[in-house]
Design brief:
alpha+beta, Heat Shock Protein 90, 2 domains, five-stranded mixed β-sheet, 9 helices, about 65% helix, rod-shaped, disordered C terminus
């Protein structure tokens, strides 16, 4: 019987997270806790002066904090593994208690001319102080460091995930361009060649629209975002080419307010919907039909419709590569905030409706 594979958590070692800023903050926290403990002892027993309590608290705290940082640096434990962490913390408490019980009285005697008695009561008080401080400080230190390291690891994982999603979006875009453009390019060039002898004016017009289409397409290959106006320019060039090829069987209208023309918009996100309407809606229909593209604001969303008067759902390719790619890119860029749906367009054809947030494109594509 094969053993069940185990899923191990990634090692979150402490050493890589120790730097000057973190160490200074740890010592600052230690000083604050020491002052609070000294104040507490002075309030509980007014016969105990504040100064000796403060010096002893700082002695124990400094010793334990230094031992913790040193042992963490030397052994570099994984915060997900309890045993090495507990051993280091216990060793730091015991060692810090021993060192602090020697350093504190020496400082009081040498610099403040204060002598702490060596009787059993005084020794017991120092031990209790050391254990109380050590337990509080080390638990605080361990909890803070573990939370900090785990949070940093989670943030790094989130950054990696966002980078992977961004790479997937770009890869899908390149794939979509590779699938669409060669087919469209060769068909258009074939039409231009056939029109040169018979209808040179139309051939020239188609060639000019092809140049316009290629110029706008190539100019936006590198940027992560284009604008809705630039996307509409490319679609206009594409539809002009199709109109020359289909003649009176194709009519189109674009209704995009000037206020939305400069709105950020992902490239090649809308065009597959237009191509799908031409290829599967209008071209197979003997009498052809029309395409209307509209854009409008809907609350915090941008609503874009591509409506055709073609054959309708009977020939609609909802599972095609272009539509599937558009759905995937909307999901990767906007998550649940974006959607794509299709409705019957009365009296004939299909209406593709895309709704995306107005302000999310730039944040998702920022480098």
């Amino acid at each position: 019987m094969s053993a069940k594979p185990s899923i191990e958590q990634p090692a979150l070692a402490i050493r890589s997270h120790l730097n000057a800023k973190h160490i200074l903050l740890d010592y600052l926290y230690m000083v604050v806790v020491s002052v609070l403990i000294a104040l507490f002892l002075s309030v509980v027993d007014v016969s105990k002066p504040f100064l000796p309590s403060l010096v002893m608290s700082l002695s124990f705290g400094t010793s334990m904090c230094t031992l913790v940082l040193t042992l963490f640096w030397l052994f570099n434990p994984d915060v997900n593994k309890a045993r090495p962490m507990v051993l280091i913390l216990v060793a730091s408490v015991v060692g810090g208690m021993i060192i602090g019980s020697q350093v504190g009285p020496f400082i009081l005697r040498r610099f403040f001319s204060v002598v702490i008695g060596t009787g059993g009561g005084h020794l017991l008080q120092m031990v209790v102080l050391a254990v109380g401080f050590g337990g509080t400080a080390t638990y605080f230190f361990y909890s803070k460091e573990r939370i900090k390291i785990v949070s940093e690891a989670a943030e790094k994982e989130r950054s990696n995930r966002l980078a992977s999603e961004k790479a997937a979006i770009e890869a899908n875009l390149r794939l979509l361009q590779a699938q669409i453009e060669p087919h469209f390019l060769f068909n258009t060039l074939s039409n231009v060649v056939s029109l040169i002898d018979t209808e040179p004016a139309k051939g020239k017009s188609m060639l000019m629209d092809l140049i316009r289409y290629l110029r706008t397409s190539l100019s936006r290959t590198l940027p992560d975002t284009t604008t809705l106006g630039q996307e509409m320019e490319t679609i206009t060039a594409y539809l002009n080419i199709q109109k020359i090829r289909l003649g009176d069987r194709l009519a189109f209208t674009l209704e995009v307010p000037e206020t939305l023309a400069q709105h950020p918009f992902p490239p090649m996100l809308l065009q597959p919907l237009v191509e799908n309407a031409v290829k599967h809606g209008l071209e197979p229909r003997i009498e052809g039909g029309g395409i209307t593209i509209t854009a409008a604001e809907k609350g915090e969303s941008l609503r874009i419709e591509v409506a055709d008067t073609g054959l309708g759902f009977s020939s609609f390719d909802a599972s095609g590569v272009g539509i599937a790619n558009v759905r995937q890119r909307i999901n990767l860029i906007y998550g649940e905030k974006g959607r794509l749906l299709f409705e019957e367009n009365n009296p004939a054809g299909v209406r593709a409706i895309m709704e995306v947030p107005k302000g999310d494109v730039q944040s998702h594509h920022s480098r």
